[in-house]
Amino acid sequence: SFAYKYLTSMHWSLTQFTPASMEVTPCNVHERAFAVGVLMFAMLVFSSFVSSITAAMTRLRQMTAIFDKNLSILRRYLRAHSISSQLSMRIIRYSEYKLSTRKL
Question: Residue 11: CB partners within 8 Å, gap ≥ 6?
């Protein structure tokens, strides 16, 4: 029936996006073209997803590097100007708090 054929083709196309499998092979040019189109679309969507995750991770690393650099500069300044260790610790803790809660 039409519904069975439609659901079979729908099932097959969905298995192209997932690790699931289905033993339906293209039998003519139109089916083969559709299969290629589905695979290309799936690759495009997956690569966009991976790209967005990579960009987010890169941004997170940059933010962490800036945070660490700022604290390092502060520690060097405090050491160079012979600030007492008790006051230095309070300044560093406060700076860590402010830098970690700051919106970037």
Answer: 22, 24
Burial class (CB in 10 A: 0-12, 13-18, 19+), 92: middle
Q: How many CA atoms lie within 13 A of 64 on its CB side?
A: 6
* pTM (two decimals): 0.56
Q: What are phi and psi of 38, to 5 degrees?
A: -65, -45
Q: What is the pLDDT of residue 24?
A: 66
3-state secondary structure 29-73: HHHHHHHHHHHHHHHHHHHHHHHHHHHHHHHHHHHHHHHHHHHHH
Question: φ and ψ at 66, to 5 degrees?
Answer: -65, -45
Give me 14's structure tokens.
């969905």
Report helix, strand and coil shares of the chain as percent, to nearest 5: 80, 0, 20
